[in-house]
Amino acid sequence: MSVSHSKRVCQIIKLKPEAEEEYIKIHAEVWPGVLAALERAHVVDYSIHYYAPLQLLIANFKYIGADYEGDMKKVAEDPETQRWWKVTDGMQESFNQGAEGSGKEVPWWATLPEVFRFEGKA
């Protein structure tokens, strides 16, 4: 079911080749506190895909709240999420010049513009 007031977000980042196995392994059991922070921030339908030939991680999620920037700031301030990012950031390489890690001023994951959407019939 589509939520008419939702915001779709697609982001990419490069996965370091030596981290592939560990990254996939830890994402099989994401920490409950990290998932709770996303839920509190009105993030739903979150998935990360991996394209191994280019070492690309591609994340997609829907935001169904009313204050995207404010909710993302709350996620970045969450202690459990900060601990998670300390583990995962070291496995990744940002495409954003000047990025220093998740939750910092320059976004760690690059956000992609939407160029096409087909929702079909409700």
Write the layout of secondary structure elements.
Elements: E1 7-15, H1 20-27, H2 32-40, E2 43-51, E3 56-63, H3 68-77, H4 79-88, E4 92-93, E5 110-111
Antiparallel strand pairs: 1-3, 1-4, 1-5, 2-3
3D architecture notes:
- By secondary structure, the protein is α+β, with helices and mostly antiparallel strands.
- It has one domain: Alpha-Beta Plaits (2-Layer Sandwich).
- It is 30% helix and 25% strand.
- The chain has helices at residues 20-27, 32-40, 68-77, 79-88; strands spanning 7-15, 43-51, 56-63, 92-93, 110-111.
- Strand 2 (43-51) and strand 3 (56-63) form a beta hairpin.
Give the structure's gist in a few sentences.
InterPro entries: Dimeric_a/b-barrel, Rham/fucose_mutarotase. The chain is an alpha+beta fold.
Provide the helix percentage.
25-40%
**Low-confidence sequence ranges:** none
Indicate the CATH architecture: 2-Layer Sandwich
* Main sheet overview: 5 strands, antiparallel
Give the mean pLDDT. Answer: 95
Q: Tally the helices: what do you get?
A: 4
Keywords:
122 residues; Alpha-Beta Plaits; 4 helices; globular; Rham/fucose_mutarotase; Rhamnose mutarotase; Dimeric_a/b-barrel
